[in-house]
């Protein structure tokens, strides 16, 4: 019964977060911003106001594929946010610009996250191999190695949380002060950003739960061997 509840949690939590962000985005993508600025215009104005005229704003592909690429110094907005005049488009565009500002300022958590990328990629790709070998072959050493690799990937997700929350806070501070949305629209913009943050919180919670499960499995395996 405990395992059924556990597996229900790790499946339902991410699904709930994804539904929340999609429903919130769909709702506020139908609400036009009083500033009547496209998402691409919001991004351009915010970047210019922070001395980042060298950062380009481009249209990307895919639904909610918005991101900032620090390698090319590019804010990429999904088509609906690049062309949209909605509160949702403005909020998402400003959030991605928040990452560009973090990059220009050398924001510590962002730099740490970038440094962790190679380790996290390796950890997420190979951890399950060692974990499965350790479990089925009853080799605690292999299980521990898998846990270490997984911990690196989990650490990356944990560090992602303050990076995303800080970018949203920067976005909210500036879209109002720069007049990129109306004064009474900040609450709606905040709802969009909070819903997006839930996906990161949910992913991190599930990752921590999974890591904890294997740590407990490792300690139990060692206890049985003794």
From TrEMBL:
Pfam families: Zn_peptidase_2. Keywords: Membrane, Transmembrane, Transmembrane helix. InterPro entries: Zn_peptidase_2. The chain crosses the membrane at residues 128-156, 192-216. This is Zn-dependent protease. It comes from Neobacillus rhizosphaerae. The lineage of its organism: Bacteria, Bacillati, Bacillota, Bacilli, Bacillales.
């Amino acid at each position: 019964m405990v395992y059924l509840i556990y597996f229900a949690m790790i499946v339902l939590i991410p699904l709930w977060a994804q539904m929340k962000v999609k429903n919130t985005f769909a709702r506020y993508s139908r609400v036009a911003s009083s500033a009547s600025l496209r998402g691409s215009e919001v991004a351009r104005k915010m970047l210019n106001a922070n001395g980042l005229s060298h950062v380009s704003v481009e249209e990307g592909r895919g639904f909610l594929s918005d991101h900032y690429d620090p390698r090319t110094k590019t804010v990429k907005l999904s088509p609906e946010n690049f062309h949209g005049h909605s509160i949702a488009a403005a909020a998402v565009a400003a959030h991605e610009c928040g990452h560009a500002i973090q990059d220009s300022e050398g924001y510590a958590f962002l730099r740490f996250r970038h440094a962790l990328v190679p380790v996290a990629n390796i950890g997420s790709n190979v951890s399950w191999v060692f974990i499965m070998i350790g479990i089925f072959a009853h080799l605690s050493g292999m299980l521990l190695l898998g846990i270490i690799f997984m911990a690196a990937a989990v650490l990356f997700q944990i560090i992602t949380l303050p990076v995303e929350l800080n970018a949203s806070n920067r976005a909210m501070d500036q879209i109002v002060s720069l007049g990129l949305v109306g004064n009474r629209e900040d609450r709606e913009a905040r709802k969009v950003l909070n819903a997006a943050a839930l996906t990161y919180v949910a992913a991190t919670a599930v990752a921590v739960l999974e890591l904890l499960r294997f740590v407990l499995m490792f300690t139990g395996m060692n206890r049985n061997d003794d």
